[in-house]
Design brief:
The protein is mainly alpha-helical. The chain is 73% helix and 0% strand. It has helices at 5-23, 26-32, 37-58, 68-92, 97-104, 107-119, 125-142, 150-176, 182-203, 214-235, 240-246, 249-262, 268-283, 287-290. α3 packs antiparallel against α9. The longest helix has 27 residues, at 150-176. Mean pLDDT is 79; it is low at 1-7 and 286-305.
């Protein structure tokens, strides 16, 4: 009865790792784009939506039409993601790569807490240790790059707000994934975010049309298609605790990118933090332990996956 569990969760674990590694490149592409930061988020969606729609149609299976609740949650998820991306992209330009990614992933802790709340259960001892280890690793990873400096304070605050909105997006999409397969869910929520992002960029008076498309194409392909595609797939199959801890892969990768491209050097505490995050992920890797965690808040019927 319990034999298939490891094989059924292994693809989702791989997907969530790939997702976070891909998403960590987002700040790099936003910094080098020649549009405004919110306009870059708009193009991330606009360039990805046609491909997402094609994949969704190609993998479509016969199923009942989504309910009004599903359509409402898709629309709300799109709005939440638009607000998250727009706010986060603004913050990226006003703080370090490590700060932007770490603080923008406040969902690391908010989403698992929501999962335990829905399940009306406390974390097990092992899950509690993993959360504490991940929190300590995140604090160390921030290290010297976290500066209580007026030049970075505004960017840090924007990224924290983005993290809260990202958690809201996860909560809404976990409900959507109960009724929709990953690609249709991502295609529809991405489509719903287009107009809000364009309006956001126009209100800010940003430059919309780029002269160089490469960073925006990379943002769409690497972050939206690969990153969010793998993330939404994993969201229907893994407990919130695992999803939340895996988000900490992003600041580890982003710190390395910042070091390589922007001379935001890593110190010894950063490397220790990365090791602690890896250890936290190992603690929740065992599917026997994962089975004790709160289940996905809205599991997807097997035929929908």
């Amino acid at each position: 009865m319990t034999g298939p569990a490891p094989t059924s969760t292994a693809p989702a674990l791989v997907a969530v790792i790939v997702a976070n590694a891909a998403l960590a490149f987002g700040p790099l592409f936003v910094r080098v784009a020649d549009t405004g930061p919110v306009a870059a988020a708009f193009w991330r969606m606009a360039l990805a939506v046609p491909v997402l729609a094609a994949i969704a149609l190609a993998t479509r299976k016969s199923a009942a039409a989504p309910s009004r609740r599903v359509w409402l949650f898709v629309a709300l998820a799109g709005l939440a993601f638009a607000a998250d991306l727009g706010t986060w992209h603004l913050g990226i330009l006003h703080t370090t790569m490590a700060n932007a990614t770490l603080l923008g992933n406040s969902a690391t802790f908010l989403f698992p807490l929501w999962g335990f709340l829905v399940a009306r259960a406390w974390p097990t001892r092992m899950q509690g240790i993993a959360l504490l280890l991940a929190a300590a690793g995140a604090a160390l990873l921030m290290g010297r790059s976290y500066q209580l400096d007026p030049r970075h304070l505004a960017g840090d605050l924007l990224c924290i707000v983005a993290g809260v909105l990202y958690a809201l997006y996860f909560i809404l999409m976990s409900d959507v994934r109960r009724a929709l397969a990953p690609w249709p869910a991502l295609a529809l929520s991405s489509l719903a975010s287009l107009l809000p992002l364009l309006g956001y960029a126009l209100i800010l008076g940003e430059k919309i049309m780029p002269q160089h498309w490469t960073p925006l194409l990379a943002l769409a392909l690497v972050c939206q298609l690969l990153g969010q595609g793998c993330m939404i797939y994993a969201l229907g199959r893994l407990p919130p605790l695992v999803i939340g801890l895996a988000l900490l892969i992003q600041p580890a990768v982003a710190a390395t990118i910042g070091w390589a491209h922007f001379d935001e050097a890593l110190a010894a505490p950063d490397f220790v933090g990365i090791a602690m995050i890896a250890a936290a992920l190992v603690l929740v890797r065992d599917t026997r332990r994962a089975a004790k965690a709160p289940p996905p808040a809205n599991p997807v019927p097997e035929e929908m996956q």
